[in-house]
């Protein structure tokens, strides 16, 4: 079974998330096409650019050593509270990315609080240390105080801080030490973020987000939290009302590979996947066993969040 790490990046807008993910992908040698090298590849959504906030999730992955690191994109704005919580649930740890000059921002605080409450292990990345007048030491202390205020547990408070410049493409475990790549960060992810739980049994996957393809229609995205999914498998779609059960079949399965998706012959527990062929699903529904459906608790989206979204 492929070794996995599932992470989400928490960052205030402009603190460098896109630049960092871009560099991670380059470092993972997944972005081999020299023609596109140097261009930003994550921020390709016009709405995002226009509004300056990430409102759509796009999962990407990086192969590093013998690990696959799934990077789950998170909305950067506090209005999207429900979305943040759902997305964070797929991650087994978070990178808290903070600008070494600006420090922590209110929106980061909101998302960090959610991540800590969900028990996620953080790694702190103090970015933009190349900037004149930056204050990485002060910002690191500020982050520690914030974690403490937000009731981080002992294990969470024992986080690692990585310093660097996403723009220049380097990260270091030591403040003041310049390196020439971002492998210290990738190693930190492998060492500090736990392997996703691998639970045997009948399949369970909470539908966490959806994508749309003009060819195959709506695609259900989520993390397999029990058992293994395979194409052609008969499954039950347990609706989030807790009552309605729809018998259906998985047509195709895909995993996130680099910047795109590839068909998968099986998706083990712990992996994040996209399912084609499930009709009429909604976010919060569960894909589960055909004969003995055991739905997962849907993740509540609180009313204020919903009203802010529409
Ligand atoms: P996002 O909104 O968090 O995705 O931020 P971006 O990755 O789009 O970066 C916002 C701006 O900060 C861009 O102009 C980047 O070039 C710049 N930036 C990102 N990382 C660094 C860094 O390490 N040092 C400096 N000086 N600028 C950076």
Automatic annotation (TrEMBL):
Record localization: Cytoplasm
Binding, GTP: 14-19, 127-130
Main localization, broad class: cytoplasm
Segments forming a coiled coil: none
Signal peptide annotation: none
EC number in record: 3.6.5.-
Domain Tr-type G residues, every copy: 2-197
Enzymatic reactions: GTP + H2O = GDP + phosphate + H(+)
Keywords: Cytoplasm, GTP-binding, Hydrolase, Nucleotide-binding, Ribosome biogenesis, RNA-binding, rRNA-binding, tRNA-binding
This protein's record includes keyword Transmembrane: no
Top-rank taxon, per record: Bacteria
Similarity comment: family membership: Belongs to the TRAFAC class translation factor GTPase superfamily. Classic translation factor GTPase family. BipA subfamily.
Function: A 50S ribosomal subunit assembly protein with GTPase activity, required for 50S subunit assembly at low temperatures, may also play a role in translation. Binds GTP and analogs. Binds the 70S ribosome between the 30S and 50S subunits, in a similar position as ribosome-bound EF-G; it contacts a number of ribosomal proteins, both rRNAs and the A-site tRNA.
Assembly and interaction partners: Monomer.
Name recorded for this polypeptide: Large ribosomal subunit assembly factor BipA
Species, as recorded: Alistipes inops
Organism ancestry: Bacteria, Pseudomonadati, Bacteroidota, Bacteroidia, Bacteroidales
